[in-house]
Structure to design on (678 residues):
């Protein structure tokens, strides 16, 4: 059904265009107080840089994961990719078309129906007054497509029953609702799905069911995922490539196994250390120092330097660029030096 | 408890049952649960939503919302019954002898009072000290949980702190009256991993130093594995498995625990597919007969469908199951 999809794996052959291409993406939010307060209280305008100069590619039929803690900008990137937010700078090309700059309405329409999103909270993302059928066929009906039997077919594909189409969202559990969200995302036959923390609201046994379902559907329909999560173990399980975000900046990007075995950025190392492990009984770790700084006035130079155990003067002054190192890309002045993980 | 027979348990729960009367019959969100927590011990209580883990914690501290009520069993704190105390006496026990930490630190703090004031108030309520002394103790408590510049920050309001710092304040509040027992209900669920690691390390250190018993309620097996000494696994209001954390995690005996472990993505990776537990957690209004887990259980036989599983006493047994999982072979986690 999608013969035109470029066939490529995580090792993109040189020259093959990636399905999604993000270049120097930045997004700034104006978080100033109202103008009257600013005048009376003599407050300056304040800007929050949620995403700062992020570039990555997602080859077709692969899963790219963005991990980071709260405030790292991972959800903002997801929203920009589906077009819910516009970029302040930089560009996002999906299938070679930049939605923010393209003027040909037909092209925009085609690309838009290629993109879908699955949200974190399956309680908030389904309209409680619509039947499941209406919810699922909406993406197709809105474009005037043929919806007969569509909801039933999709429900069976995601492991629910065709009869469920006439029920309402409140009749389902969290895991079942997330399946409905997945069915809705599949309705317009997309090629690219942004999944924003799709399982963090779910119990672990239900999470396993949903993750397995997502893997199966990816195989079956040749889907491409942007998988946004804070959970490194889930990301390792799902992703072909992982980008680690800190304060809106991409600090490291690597294949999941490589990232776990030889984390090159000190922040990645800290995250991996801090994540609770099933096999670490009574582990006494030196917990990470400090917290994420205020994104309105991020530290100069490398944003991680106040918490970094190996920071030097250069880190306080000069922002490190993302540079290739081994099979990864890393934004750290000291990565690759002697005594730091390389290979 | 069996491995420490000499020391009396700080908290001893026997056959605790909680009932909620509804128009469609009486629900039992907690059914005959028994466990002990010793001095300086951390008991992890783990389970999925609706398993009754928070309800158990609330029953222990006497904070059940009506119409839920304790309908059977007993709760003893240092061998003194606390489940049948009148409200005013129970209020003295809470805060003084039982500290509480909840998931959302913002709702556990009064937004209108400086944090130092809130801790000092608790100290004054429960201990016979002057207000200056109470303030000094509040500052000391804040220092102990790692609030930088504690003396200055004691005058700040909860909204001026980050989530992790707020949870530190809540821990200081829970521990300031030097309680025997701390009930921590999902204390790190709302926090980022790096902050979670800080809070867990802090909780472990403080409780070990003071010999405080901790009931750590969470859904995260990883947190339990790192922090707890023993773990209680709950399913549909009943205790499914209870044992030392290493044993339960590496060689689970109850098929539910086993399924839970298989469903958890491993930090080491290497799983092609996660093992699924078929079906979903039953609703309390329609609990299966016999063992509540039998419709989802790979080992279920006729006995499981008819007879309730053997109950777990606090001092014996690992799994409440007729046919527990055997581990003869080296454990393979791949699906």
């Amino acid at each position: 059904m999608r013969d035109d999809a470029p066939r490529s794996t995580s090792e993109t052959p040189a020259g093959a265009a990636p399905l999604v291409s993000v270049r120097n993406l930045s997004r700034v939010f104006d978080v100033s107080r109202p103008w009257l307060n600013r005048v009376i209280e003599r407050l300056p305008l304040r800007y929050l840089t949620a995403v700062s100069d992020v570039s990555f590619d997602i080859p077709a039929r692969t899963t790219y994961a963005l991990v980071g803690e709260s405030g790292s900008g991972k959800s903002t990137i997801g929203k920009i990719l589906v077009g819910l937010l516009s970029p302040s700078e930089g560009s996002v090309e999906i299938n070679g078309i930049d939605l923010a700059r393209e003027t040909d309405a037909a092209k925009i329409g085609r690309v838009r129906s290629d993109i879908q999103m699955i949200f974190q909270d399956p309680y908030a993302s389904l309209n409680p007054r619509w039947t499941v059928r209406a919810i699922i066929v909406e993406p197709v009906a809105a474009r005037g497509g043929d919806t007969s039997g569509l909801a039933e077919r999709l429900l069976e594909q995601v492991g629910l029953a065709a009869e469920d189409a006439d029920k309402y969202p409140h009749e389902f559990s969290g895991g079942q609702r997330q399946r409905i969200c997945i069915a809705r995302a599949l309705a317009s036959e997309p090629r690219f799905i942004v999944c924003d923390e799709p399982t963090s609201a779910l119990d672990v046994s239900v999470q396993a069911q949903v993750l397995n379902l997502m893997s199966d559907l990816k195989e079956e329909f040749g889907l491409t995922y942007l998988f946004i999560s804070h959970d490194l173990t889930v990301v390792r399980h799902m992703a072909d490539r992982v980008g680690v975000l800190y304060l809106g900046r991409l600090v490291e990007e690597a294949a999941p196994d490589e990232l776990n075995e030889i984390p090159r950025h000190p922040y990645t190392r800290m995250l991996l250390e801090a994540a609770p492990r099933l096999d670490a009984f009574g582990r006494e770790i030196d917990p990470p120092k400090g917290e994420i700084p205020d994104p309105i006035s991020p530290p100069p130079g490398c944003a991680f330097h106040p918490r970094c155990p190996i920071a030097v003067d250069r880190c306080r002054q000069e922002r490190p660029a993302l540079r290739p190192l081994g099979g990864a890309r890393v934004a750290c002045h000291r990565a690759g030096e002697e005594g730091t993980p390389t290979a | 408890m069996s491995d420490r027979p000499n020391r009396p348990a700080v908290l001893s729960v026997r056959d605790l049952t909680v009932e909620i009367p509804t128009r469609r019959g009486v629900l039992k969100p907690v059914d005959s649960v028994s466990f002990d927590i010793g001095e300086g011990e951390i008991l992890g209580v783990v389970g999925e939503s609706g398993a009754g883990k928070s309800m158990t914690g609330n029953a222990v501290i006497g904070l059940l919302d009506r119409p839920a009520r304790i309908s059977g069993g007993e709760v003893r704190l240092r061998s003194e019954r606390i489940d049948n105390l009148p409200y005013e006496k129970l209020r003295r026990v809470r805060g003084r002898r039982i500290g509480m930490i909840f998931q959302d630190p913002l709702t556990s703090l009064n937004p209108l009072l400086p944090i130092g004031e809130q801790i000092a108030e608790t100290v004054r309520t429960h201990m016979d000290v002057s207000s200056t002394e109470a303030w000094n103790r509040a500052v000391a408590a804040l220092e102990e949980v790692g609030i930088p510049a504690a003396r200055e920050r004691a005058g700040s309001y909860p909204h001026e702190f980050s989530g992790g710092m707020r949870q530190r304040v809540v821990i200081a509040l829970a521990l300031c009256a030097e309680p025997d027992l701390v009930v921590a209900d999902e204390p790190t669920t709302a926090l980022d991993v790096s902050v979670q690691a800080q809070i867990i390390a802090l909780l472990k250190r403080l409780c070990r130093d003071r010999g405080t018993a901790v009931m750590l309620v969470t859904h995260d097996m990883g947190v339990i594995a790192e922090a707890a000494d023993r773990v209680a696994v709950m399913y549909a209001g009943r205790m499914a498995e209870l044992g030392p954390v290493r044993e339960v995690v590496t060689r689970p005996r109850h098929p539910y625990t086993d399924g839970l472990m298989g469903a958890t993505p491993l930090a080491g990776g290497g799983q092609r597919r996660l093992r699924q537990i078929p079906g979903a957690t039953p609703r309390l209004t329609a609990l299966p007969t016999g063992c509540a887990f039998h419709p989802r259980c790979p080992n279920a036989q006729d006995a499981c469908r008819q007879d309730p599983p053997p109950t777990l006493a606090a001092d014996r047994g690992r799994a409440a199951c007729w046919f527990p999982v055997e581990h003869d072979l080296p454990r393979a986690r791949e699906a």
Notes: Residues 229 and 302 of chain B are 35 Å apart (CA to CA).
